[in-house]
Amino acid sequence: MSFKHLIAFFLVFMLVSCSPKKIDKNGFTIKNNIVYRNDSNAPFTGLVKSKTEGKNFEYYVKDGLKNGEFKITFENGNLIMKGNIFNDKNEGKWAYYYLSGELESEGNFKHDKPDSIWVWYFPGGKVKEKGIFVNGLREGMWKMYDELGNVSMEKEYKNGIGSLLNQK
Prior knowledge:
Layout: H1 3-18, E1 28-31, E2 34-37, E3 46-52, E4 55-62, E5 65-73, E6 79-86, E7 89-97, E8 103-110, E9 113-121, E10 127-134, E11 137-145, E12 151-158, E13 161-167
């Protein structure tokens, strides 16, 4: 290959490699909350598996919207979170985990907002905090516990605003 050809090849390579691209390393792009494959203008349907910042994401998409099971795992394979999505909104039971794989918290979503009983746990499994969400807001009696399982604080919530009832 002559020097002229080598220079021409190098210039073409630089022009191609420096041009703007929308392709990401995972093969998907999200525009206006709709998932697309990088090689298509049609909303994607299928399983998305991607890796970002050392975390693995896996979820199903139908017509560009997240639908079905959604989960994120640590590099070691342990779950970070797992739940269900319906038309891009969190629905049903969700669970969150410590790096060790132990359950950190669990509860339900309704219309993309926390709803019903939610429980947080200390590493080791003892309850740390427990209470009810209604339409995304804390409601009623919430109890916090120490690592021995004793109630350390009680708060009463009305429309997400809490007032301390008891602290030990």
